[in-house]
Write a structure and sequence with these properties.
heterodimer, A: 6-stranded parallel sheet, 6-stranded parallel sheet, 12 strands, B: alpha/beta, Rossmann fold, 6-stranded mixed sheet, 8 helices
């Protein structure tokens, strides 16, 4: 094919927090490559713990009427890792997303979602937690579109980030575009440091700072996987994220 | 057990403790009373090592060690327990998980073997029963959704599990109804009344001291101890007020 692909730049709204140097060096083919899935009406599909390629990934999922799609993932590798998920929901369909972004070193890592409520009565729930250390950048750009006919849409999006030190960055960009009038759309974003009052309380009971930190971070990222029903699967996702966090911390202290 | 000598401390560059001296021996229960803003909570936080509470002068020696040189978690391992006036909520971390980590970290710091899961649960059950607290509450996130009284009861369960040498209890009686006050007070007596342990109660009211009878009562005002006496001093304060007693 002789199709021309334009590589996006950080002037493009959906790429505004991307690593511009990594974008300039990106393979145009990879940028325009979409993993597509179609869920038939009433069908279900789940992606649990699909590892990041460490580069740009674009996922597109079309969920038929009454279908369910769930996606739970940890972004923990790559200098510029981006997972973009575009989900179109048919009537009464549902989408659950739980993501954890772990930023270490100089990396930029981001989840970018676009949820299109195309038909009435669909539900979407997104919970993203980010922990950024060193000079890393952790982002969540979440766009929710509700079409004119998509009445009784129930959409929720929540992002929280912890910055472990000065120099770490998190960016949140919630975007709601709503054309229907009978709609529930909740969104929230908060960026802060680790809870110092909790850390001192734990220390006063004898928990050393590193262990206190690990317990607090574990509790924090577990939020993203709260809707995984099977507790063993939930535990696997939390452990995967924590292992990567521990590994990064160890590397930082070598 | 604890010798505080001429302690000066600042919070955000404001001098709060201005030359406080106090000696607590093993087997003793001391009560510190005083008006709001006198520095009572600052004393607790300073001895606990809370970041932001800076010692500018003086010393504190605990069981022969320089307390002020130790990190907060090391102070706990050395046998110091700080009961919080406002216990902190930690969503997503259960009491059981937190306390087992705390108990075993302390044991590790003292060169002792860690408790197994079974041993720890047995201990936790025993102490929860002592404070008439349902064990199921300890499976919940730390202090989350607890009433003021339940938080204070949970503080005492923690004290029972961690078994400190010295407990500094900052307004453990606030937020308690009459029955809970009795349960908590008796809990303090059971856990801490021993020849090799000591308690420092920070309180506003006589009512806790009716249950946990102090050997010494001190009045803290303007960042120092301005008067010391026996249990009668607390009763006198209750009747006459701080101003009359410290004038």
């Amino acid at each position: 094919m002789n199709q021309t692909v334009t590589i996006p730049t950080t002037r493009d709204e959906a790429w505004r927090y991307a690593d511009s140097a990594a974008l300039a060096a990106a393979d145009p083919g990879a940028v325009d490559e979409w993993r597509t899935f179609k869920i038939e009406p009433g069908g279900t599909l789940r992606h649990l713990g699909e590892p990041t390629t460490g580069g740009i990934e674009r996922w597109r999922i079309d969920v038929g009427a009454g279908g369910c799609y769930a996606h739970f993932a940890v972004l923990d590798a790559g200098d510029y890792a981006r997972r973009e998920i575009e989900v179109t929901l048919g009537e009464g369909a549902s989408f659950e997303f739980g993501g954890v972004v772990l930023g270490t070193g100089e990396a930029t890592r981001e989840f970018v979602t676009r949820v299109i409520h195309a038909e009435p009565g669909a539900m979407s729930k997104q919970v993203v937690r980010a922990v950024a250390a060193d000079r890393s950048v952790a982002n969540f750009l979440g766009r929710i579109e509700v079409a004119r006919d998509a009445q009784q849409t129930d959409a929720a999006q929540n992002f929280r980030a912890i910055l472990l030190n000065d120099g770490a960055t998190a960016n949140a960009k919630p975007e709601l575009e709503i054309f229907a009038d009978d709609v529930k759309c909740a969104h929230g974003a908060a960026i802060g440091a680790l809870d110092e009052a909790a850390a001192f309380y734990m220390a006063a009971r004898g928990v050393p700072p590193e262990e206190a930190r690990a317990l607090l971070i574990r509790a924090f990222i577990a939020d993203a996987f709260g809707s995984i029903e099977d507790t063993r699967e939930q535990e696997t996702m939390i452990s995967q994220a924590l292992a990567s966090y521990d590994h990064a911390r160890l590397r930082a202290h070598v | 057990m604890l010798q505080i000598d001429n302690l000066h401390a600042t919070v955000a560059d404001n001098a709060i403790l201005k030359g406080l001296s106090l000696t607590i021996n093993a087997g003793e229960v001391h009560a510190i009373m005083g008006p709001n803003g006198a520095g009572k909570s600052t004393l607790g936080y300073t001895l606990g090592g809370r970041p932001g509470y800076a010692v500018t002068q003086g010393s504190a020696t605990f069981l022969g060690q320089d307390l002020l040189e130790l990190e907060p978690h090391e102070r706990a391992a050395a046998g110091l327990f700080l009961g919080f006036q406002y216990p902190v909520e930690i969503p997503g971390v259960s009491f059981v998980q937190f306390l087992r980590e705390a108990a075993n970290s302390q044991r590790k710091g003292r060169g002792e073997e860690p408790l197994s899961g079974g041993e720890f649960l047995k201990l936790a059950k025993e102490k929860a029963a002592l404070l008439k607290m349902d064990m199921d509450m300890l499976k919940r996130s730390v202090n989350v959704g607890f009433s003021g009284g339940e938080k204070k009861r949970a503080e005492m369960v923690q004290m029972g599990i961690l078994d400190p040498r010295l407990a500094i209890l900052d307004e453990t009686d606030s937020g308690l109804d009459i029955d809970a006050l009795r349960v908590v007070g008796e809990g303090i007596n059971t856990i801490m009344r021993s020849p090799d342990k000591a308690v420092l109660l920070i309180t506003h009211y006589q009512r806790l001291l009716d249950v946990v009878q102090p050997d010494f009562v001190h009045v803290l005002a303007g960042g120092r101890i301005v008067r010391s006496g026996g249990p009668d001093l607390a009763r006198q304060l209750e009747e006459e007020g701080y101003e009359a007693v410290t004038a």
